[in-house]
Write a structure and sequence with these properties.
The structure is a homodimer of 208-residue chains. Chain A is mainly α and 208 residues long. Helix content of chain A is 63%, strand content 0%. The first copy, chain A, has helices at 10-30, 37-44, 48-55, 58-70, 82-98, 100-111, 117-139, 147-164, 171-182. Chains A, B: Residues 36-55 bind DNA.
């Protein structure tokens, strides 16, 4: 994130805001594949060298823009219980990330990210949202898993499949991940080893 | 994989082999950042237009090369039980993928992959290895989870953390994922909800 670590306000913040806005506008007008640094600079009213100096190259600029777009803008909703809060969050996360725009942002965030800080920021956003949900559940007196376990059991499978194995992803998959996390002793599967992933089960991703 | 679907043997296969070899040689001589299509073409003894026609651009070529390098070259070892086979496989997978060369191949495979087929191939390699392990275990008479569950519970967390949350990844993490998959009723954690992820536990990834 070093390139984004700029003082709030002032010229630096105005340049960032106008360059990010230029990327959004141009991406919808001419498509992302047609974006160039000179084109973005012209729209933003800055010189190309300002962009190169601050972001390095177009890929790094797109990565920063993607991370900004992936930042959640609201706290997770309160549905009264850990299971329902986490289920609603996971469904929304999968819906946003598996959407073509979400996939494009995830790819951009990973690509122009030589030191991995933008990918780390994406993961931190998810972990922060989960921590919020777990803290609220603990305050209700509910027993909660720890945040890293939720990352491993709910976030990681969704992101892995979005990137590597996207067939069959749907809200039922997000719900099942949460259900298996919170109730590994599902009566239909006394040992908790087999998820309901019969190959004929239309709700389950089967992958290539 | 459409660009790779060429007839074995013949000029097409020779071109692929010499271009892939040129990428490897040049990457070690001048570094990946300095690779260009004309440079690769010159070393491979083909024209740049041959490369553009077949691979589209450098990024797609690097993606194809990465997938070839990520292909396992041996079947998973037989250590006598499902737990030991899967543990050994997961440790080796994490070691290879979290290594700087492995991370670079994963990134390359994802980047120059407009239709997602190379990422799907990477995932299929892992699923094939797991299927091999599970089939052998079932033949021994062992109870086995299904392959998609192993992908969700072992492969996905490792790949997610390699890409998004790499701090603290080590062999103990791979072993723990397998142990929690095969024995969710670990006596140290009767409800199977909390992995041994105390923040002070040096074996556990804590993320940013």
């Amino acid at each position: 994130m070093s390139r984004q670590m700029v003082r709030p306000g002032g010229r630096s913040a105005r340049v960032q805001a106008s360059v990010h806005a230029a990327v959004h506008e141009l991406a919808s007008e001419v498509g992302r594949a047609a974006l160039t640094v000179p084109l973005v600079a012209q729209r933003a009213g800055v010189t190309p060298s300002t962009i190169y100096r601050r972001w390095g190259d177009l890929q790094e600029l797109l990565s920063d823009v993607a991370v900004m777009r992936l930042r959640p803008d609201t706290a997770p909703g309160d549905h009264g219980s850990l299971a329902s809060d986490l289920t609603a969050w996971a469904e929304q996360f999968l819906d946003e990330m598996a959407h073509p725009a979400g996939r494009a942002y995830i790819r951009d965030a990973l690509l122009g990210d030589p030191d991995g800080s933008n990918a780390g920021q994406c993961s931190a956003y998810a972990a922060d949202q989960i921590t919020f949900i777990l803290t609220r559940a603990a305050e209700r007196g509910e027993r909660t898993p720890d945040v890293e376990t939720v990352v491993d059991r709910v976030v990681a499978p969704m992101m892995y499949r979005i990137l590597f194995r996207p067939d069959g992803l749907d809200a039922a998959y997000a719900r099942r991940l949460v259900a298996e996390l919170l109730d590994p002793s599902d009566p239909s599967d006394p040992n908790g080893q087999n998820g309901p992933r019969d190959p004929s089960d239309p709700s389950g991703p089967t992958g290539p």
